[in-house]
Amino acid sequence: MTPITEVEGRRLALSNLEKVIHPATGTTKGEILHYYATVAPQLLPHLRGRPLSFLRYPDGPDGQQFFAKNPPPGTPSWVKTALVPRSDDKNAHQVIVEDLPSLMWAANLVVEFHTPQWLADTPAVADRLVLDLDPGAPATVVDCCRVALWLRERLGADGLEAYAKTSGAKGMHLYVPLVPAPSERVQAYAKQLAVEAEEDLPALVVHRMAKTLRPGKVFVDHSQNNAAKTTAAPYTLRARREPAVSAPVTWEEVEACGDPSRLVFLLADMAPRLRDHGDLLAPLLDPDRAGPLP
């Protein structure tokens, strides 16, 4: 029998709580739900107002994975959705998660949370820039840290402040809070930064996606600023054998990184990190920290 629980007045059917989702650590679905309840105060502000895409992995990382933008069948009527027209469906809607019941409902589906860089009320008008630093083997997140520090300084020269998080996979994400600007302009500026990074660090950086160019280098992926693209949200678990989190990090941690394992954070690491640091990405939510595109 599927247990029914009540979360802030909403009744939820939470299924298969003993099912192992992350096999390397034996992490169960029930532990995943507990994790999301624990980080909800930090996670929800980063999801609020943004139409979500889900990477679903209900049978773990070794099972079927599929990307979903439309609200799944059986979505409760109280889960908020927003109209997000697409070229193939002008009436398409996507889920917006803004409260704990909606978060628990979505987490019960076993998903990665992915968001665009804009809010549903202002589509294709970005309030942040993101750069995805993706290392090509044998490069690692240590090399991403070197690139991140270069980009931080370059952004600072334009009066913009960068904040870092792990991708939860191999690399790192940099976020910059912006005075809202058209996504097309933000993407053009992000590409310019990636090109400049490659020019200044040619042995370390590549700005083009071609896999033949990427071994031993860090691909600075600027494309996620395209209005149609999304990025793994802060604090989301990733579909990996270990319950790796896309975790905010301090610049001191980036500067000191000499061992890739130092920037791997699992589900169990996050409660103590939040006690020690709070939400390191909170400045992204403060309009006073937003800078204008140059």
Question: How would you sum up this structure, described in words?
Answer:
The protein is an alpha+beta fold and 294 residues long. It folds into 2 domains: 14-115, no CATH class; 125-229 and 247-269, Alpha-Beta Plaits. The chain is built from 6 helices and 16 strands. The chain has helices at residues 29-47, 100-108, 141-157, 183-200, 251-256, 270-277, and strands at 4-7, 10-13, 20-22, 27-28, 53-56, 66-68, 81-83, 93-95, 111-115, 125-135, 163-166, 172-182, 205-206, 218-221, 231-232, 248-249. It has a 6-stranded mixed sheet. Strands 6-5-9-15 form a 4-stranded antiparallel sheet, with helices on one face. A two-stranded antiparallel ribbon has the order 1-2. Helix 1 packs across helix 2 (100-108). It is globular, with a radius of gyration of 19 Å. The model has no long low-confidence stretch (mean pLDDT 96).
Structure in a nutshell:
This protein is α+β, with helices and mostly antiparallel strands and 294 residues long.
Number of strands: 16
- What is the helix content? 25-40%
CATH class of the largest domain: Alpha Beta
Structural class: alpha+beta
Strands ordered across the widest β-sheet? 13-14-10-12-11-16
Alpha carbon gyration radius: 19 Å
Low-confidence stretches: none
Secondary-structure element string: EEEEHEEEEHEEHEEHEEEEHH
> Cα distance, first to last residue?
58 Å
Number of helices: 6
Mean pLDDT: 96
Domain DNA ligase D polymerase: 28-280
InterPro entries: LigD_pol_dom, MtLigD_Pol-like, NHEJ_LigD
Pfam families: LigD_Prim-Pol (PF21686)
Protein name: ATP-dependent DNA ligase
